Amino acid sequence: MTSASETVRLTPAQVARQRRAAALRRTWTSFRRHRSGLFGLALLTFFVAVALLAPVLADAQGLEVTKATGGVLEPPSREYWLGTDENGRSILTLLIWGARISLFVGLLATLISMVIGTFIGLSSGFFEGWPARLLYRVTEWFLVIPFVPLAIVLASILGRSLINIVIVIGVTSWASTALLIRSQTLSIKERPYVERAQVLGAGRWHQMSRHVLPNVMPMVFANTTLTVALAILAETTLSFLGLGDPTRVSWGSMLDDAFTVGAMTTGAWWYIVPPGVCVVLVVLAFTLVGQALEEVFNPRLRERA
User: Fold this and answer.
1) Of 234, 130, 229, 249, which is closest to residue 172 (Cα–Cα)?
2) Domain segments of the chain: what residues?
3) Alpha-carbon gap, residue 107 to 105, rounded angstroms
4) C-alpha 272: how far from its chain's center?
5) Which of 53, 88, 96, 223 has the fewest CB within 10 Å, making it most exposed?
6) Residues 237-284: pLDDT tens digits?
7) pTM above 0.85, yes or no
8) In which element (H, E) is residue 18 found?
């Protein structure tokens, strides 16, 4: 007869779920100790909420030039809190809808960059021989080539569209991630549990997918938040240079339009300052969150703190 106090046996799946939940609780507890990280998270949550609630906060018809009701470069007023652009459209409406494009490009380009960087970093660090050396040399080549000229050339070849800008940023910003993952992989594959798995007959794919990859994923996740900030800055730069999607409104395209109409020389500060401040705040938010996560996932940084 089984006693009531006997320990209930858990399935492997339940044990794995409990471990993941405990790891998440430990991560959140460590993250809450970083005030700068919490500030960045709150700021990031605000901008994400604005982007998701854009249809509720501002009418999409306000983006159409033919339906603009304001004056040309009208200063802030009760009707237009942040003034109007050269077409009479509300700057506030452009900012709200521009948040969607800027965040979308930043997140999707970062996803492409992380996938490429993680794959190349793992492959060049775990495997040996000329293929690994070739991947490492390709990574070095992308690190040496200046980002802006390379991105301008690719954007000019592919054309001006939102998806092309995402592809350009994604395929030109993976090198630093690959180098980071490669260094972590070289360290992890020399650890005893990986050697034991090799002695027990585990194949290379099993070692990489079950032992190496799970241990580098925290660094990948922390580096992702930092890469999003760089991707948003890259989108702003390319849009400011006139290589963005002309049919979409982003913070970068707003700065480009403001520069084209000479908003700075005419004193229309309300056309330049708001999108510039939004770019700075979003980049700051991702940077603060990324630095906090990097310290949480990196034991050496925790010890120094």
Assistant:
1) 234
2) 33-304
3) 6
4) 24
5) 53
6) 888 888 888 888 889 889 988 988 888 888 889 999 999 999 999 989
7) no
8) helix 12-31
Q: What are phi and psi of 74, to 5 degrees?
A: -75, 135
Alpha-carbon torsion, ordered 26, 30, 36, 40, to 10 deg: -10
In CATH, 33-304 is 1.10.10.350: no
DSSP 89: -
Residue 223: enclosing H or E segment and its boundaries? helix 213-240
Nearest to 208 by CA among 238, 231, 228, 188: 188
Confidence at 32, pLDDT banded by 50, 70, 90 = confident
Q: How far is Cα 187 from Cα 104, in angstroms, rounded to an integer?
A: 34
Confidence of residue 38 (pLDDT cuts 50, 70, 90): very high
Beta bridge partners of 84: 90
* Cross-strand pairs, 90: 84
